[in-house]
Model the fold of this input.
Amino acid sequence: MLKVGIFGVGHLGKFHLNNWQEIDGTEIVGFFDPNDTTAKEVEQKYELKRFNSADKLIDKCDAIDVIAPTNFHFDVCMAAIKKGKHVFVEKPMADTLEQGKQIVEMVKEAGIKFQVGHVERFNPAFLALKNFPLNPMFIEVHRLAQFNPRGTEVSVILDLMIHDIDIILKLVNSDVKNISASGVAVMTDTPDIANVRIEFNNGCVANLTSSRISMKKMRKMRLFQKDAYIGIDFLEKKTEIIKLKSAEDKNAFTFDIDTPSGNKTLAIINPDTQPVNAIKEELQSFVHSIIQNKNTIVNEIDGYLAMEVAHLILEKISNTTKLT
Done:
């Protein structure tokens, strides 16, 4: 039985608690949260032990789940890693790049399993593409959310855009060549809306827009590659592929178009999306990595690289602001 300790039982923490209770082969030994009101509520509702010492909870666990505010991530993760405990931590995995580097080095030295909570990797709309060859050369992303004071201790880049940064880095698999960015702080002291252009060494270009002050929600990514367009709706959990028809597309809806190079047949494909719980899926994958001694799907390197690009974006926005 894998013994798990929870650090942070606020809004998202409760989602994690509910999912941990449904994962076979695990046992929640307790939680740590300095907020007395929240802690009392969780103690009563979940009948879990509250630990007043982070170290004592870590000592009782095989693995920890960190859903505390970002500024607490580093200290909790490092304390657990030093004691040889496995770690799941919400994105971003640390407050600064230097902290991120230290975590990467310590994970390698300790030989533990470390997973970062980039939950969109487990979104049904993204999982539906696992068997489709992806080689995008242009990517367009819109991630818009209504304002919520929760999570505003970090910028919209580290709060929302980092989800898309992680997925784009996974898809493109090329070094970043150049970044252009602009952003505005509207409701908080850090950028609440940002537009970013990332150019990669392989020629791919990604345009990203993220806002946490929108009137409507949107989480869409569009991929353009040779002979295909792929639309991913993370919010509605739907995926659409428009591509040149091939022999495998027997049951797809097709239509003909005239092009300068002649008549071509296009196929529209809507891959099946399974109604999975993305949070439960990512926690289960973390458990499987520990039990089966396999690499985590979103490891410390992935988490650091997404952080690195996010901080480069923040630096570009800061420099642009200073110039104006």
